[in-house]
């Protein structure tokens, strides 16, 4: 059976991961892309597939999203950066990069934050990565950026994936996202044009080449992330 859409992309990434597996070491995969490109959905489905198709008793793969390293809204407000939330300077970039690098060590468990989009805040220590988990999938906007500290991640990743549909698809998905979170159409469009699309252009222009490039021009609502 010929796979299409998200199923095909999940299979391609899983195949990439299996080709990089090495006994005695952890495989760390980076999935990057602009906002609303589909990277988060893809990363979740990849981790689900890896765990579903593995017979080990513990988790074979774990997911670590970059969004948990958003700076808090109160801090962003004091720094006059709240309107730019999602831009590189609104993340604890160095903290995130150090956390990713530490995953190469498999002698101890580690804890990491997640991000609740509806509450618009990070939740500390809500991801547990056990030392025996052999694969960690990292997803986020700036994983392949050529500037510091993001550029330091390339030596950690076993392989990288970049997800980028058309600009029209990205804009449509962003509008759906912000409307679903309660913004009116005018405020949503302002947020998209003044911040989201600016970040999208930065990510496309300043990201280093991936091992696998995917163009997720899907129309279903499931691909908002």
How would you describe this structure to a colleague?
This protein has 225 residues and is of the alpha/beta class. The protein has one domain: P-loop containing nucleotide triphosphate hydrolases (Rossmann fold, 3-Layer(aba) Sandwich), CATH 3.40.50.300. The chain is 36% helix and 18% strand. The strands form two sheets. Strands 2-5-1-6-7 form a five-stranded parallel sheet, with helices on one face. A two-stranded antiparallel sheet has the order 3-4. A hairpin with a 4-residue loop joins β3 and β4. The longest helix is centred in the last third of the chain and has 22 residues. The protein is globular and about 50 Å long. The C terminus is likely disordered.
TL;DR of this structure?
The chain is α/β, with parallel strands linked by helices. It contains six helices and seven strands.
The total count of strands amounts to: 7
CATH topology (fold) name: Rossmann fold
Unreliable spans are 218-225
Largest sheet: 5 strands, parallel
Q: Record the strand order, biggest sheet.
A: 2-5-1-6-7
